[in-house]
Amino acid sequence: MSLLWAVPPVVMTLAGLISLRWLRRIAEASTQLQDELALLSELGDSVAEVRRAGAETRASLEGLRRA
Q1: What are the helix (H) ranges across 1-67?
Q2: C-alpha to C-alpha distance for 1 and 7, rounded to whole angstroms
Q3: Over the range 8-43, which residues count as b (16 or more CB within 10 Å of their CB) and which as e?
Q4: 3-state secondary structure of 1
Q5: Is the pTM of this model over 0.90?
Q6: pLDDT at residue number 55
Q7: For the chain, first and last CA: distance in Å?
C-alpha cells in the first residue's frame, strides 16, 4: 500500500481541525455579542426612564408657564 492512500485522511483531519477552531471562534464571538446585547437592553431601559422623566419635566414646565 502506498502513502498516497494516507493523504486524503490526513487532509480531512486537518480540515476538520481547522473547521473546529473556526467554529470555536464563532461561538466565542456569538457569546460576546449576546453579552453586549444584554447590556444594550439594560441601557435601553435606562434611556426609556430618562425619556419618561423628560416628558414629566416638560409637562410640569407647561403647567408652570400657564400658571
Answers
A1: 7-66
A2: 12
A3: eeeeeeeeeeeeeeeeeeeeeeeeeeeeeeeeeeee
A4: coil
A5: no
A6: 93
A7: 101
